[in-house]
Automatic annotation (TrEMBL):
One of its GO terms (cellular component) is cytoplasm. It comes from the Archaea. It comes from Methanosphaera cuniculi. Pfam families: Phage_integrase. The active site is at R159, K183, H249, R252, H275, Y284 (o-(3'-phospho-dna)-tyrosine intermediate). GO terms for biological process: DNA transposition. PROSITE patterns: CB, TYR_RECOMBINASE. The gene is xerD_1. Belongs to the 'phage' integrase family. XerA subfamily. GO terms for molecular function: DNA binding; tyrosine-based site-specific recombinase activity. Keywords: Cytoplasm, DNA integration, DNA recombination, DNA-binding. The lineage of its organism: Archaea, Methanobacteriati, Methanobacteriota, Methanomada group, Methanobacteria. This is Tyrosine recombinase XerA.
Length: 301
């Protein structure tokens, strides 16, 4: 089917703008929209260098060439999967019938990377020897804030995007709970333990500016960026002597894996993580080899 008659070419930028607006209306997160925008802009840039697009057939041919171009650049299978899924969704939303001709390949699902409990402890306490609770200079305030961030990421299983949005009203100290809004604006309640409670109280009593809405802010009283926290986690991992790639999401994986190892019901872990589908949570069963061995031995005994 031809998109335009005469000699007019398709202006895909207009379709991309409309699609991104649709994602905003659907309450997609800022990070997700940014990812979609980056990938679609990359596709659009490629199209501009490969002739005019006057029909859906031209567009489909350009898409196939783009995927081949990415394969030749040796991008990861997971990235290629993401590109195909996003462009197919874009075509479907834009009423291009060619989306039916695009098959999204199955995504490989490697086992989650996680830290053992000793490594988590070393990470959280990496700067304890340099922290002076009686001297509230700027450096010590940052050290206390960072320790609380690491503790919350591990003890609650929060995503980094959820953590930076915590505000005072979200916290119920009596019940040791935090109300958070996850993917797709889905609300859930996460729990925190006594150690996190004490650290949170210390932070709020000593550092938190009551005039700010969010718990974690920078000098300009704006929420911390995810990048700031990612850099901090990497720095603390190096200080703790952990020879693994450590990210905020690794702490979330560690939280789920350790709960699984302690025999917590899979449905409970699903709720704590905010997974819509239980299949997403079941990947942690494959991480806990002790649980697998126990089930295997029980079957034969």
């Amino acid at each position: 089917m031809f998109l335009y008659q005469n000699d007019e070419s398709l202006n895909i930028e207009d379709f991309i703008e409309d699609y991104l607006i649709t994602l905003e209306i659907r309450n997609y997160s800022d990070n997700t929209i940014q990812t979609y925008q980056t990938i679609l802009n990359g596709f659009n840039t490629f199209i501009k260098t490969h002739g005019r697009i006057k029909s859906e057939k031209d567009l489909l041919r350009a898409f196939k060439k783009y995927i081949l171009h990415l394969k030749n650049k040796n991008v990861s299978k997971n990235y290629l999967h993401l590109v195909i899924r996003i462009i197919r969704s874009f075509f479907k939303s834009s009423k291009f019938d060619i989306y039916n001709e695009i098959q999204v390949p199955r995504k490989s699902r490697p086992l989650p990377k996680f830290l053992n409990e000793q490594e988590v402890y070393n990470l959280i306490h990496a700067m304890d020897d340099e922290y002076d609770p009686n001297n509230l200079n700027y450096i010590n305030k940052i050290r206390l804030r960072n320790k609380l961030i690491l503790t919350l990421l591990y003890s609650t299983g929060l995503r980094i995007s959820e953590l930076i949005k915590i505000n005072i009203n979200d916290i119920n100290f009596e019940n040791h709970t935090i109300r958070t809004c996850g993917k797709g604006d889905k609300e859930r309640i996460v729990l925190f333990n006594d150690e996190t409670y004490n650290l949170l109280k210390e932070y709020l009593d000593k550092i938190k500016d009551n005039n700010t809405y969010y718990i974690f802010t920078n000098k300009q009283n704006k929420t911390l960026s995810t990048r700031t926290i990612q850099i901090m986690v990497k720095k603390y991992a190096e200080k703790a002597g952990i020879n693994k790639k450590v990210t905020p999401h690794v702490l979330r994986h560690s939280f789920a894996t350790h709960l699984m190892e302690k025999g917590v019901n899979l449905r409970v872990i699903q709720q704590l993580l905010g997974h819509t589908n239980l299949n997403t949570t079941q990947i942690y069963v494959g991480v806990d080899t002790n649980l697998i061995k126990e089930a295997y031995n029980n079957a034969w005994n």
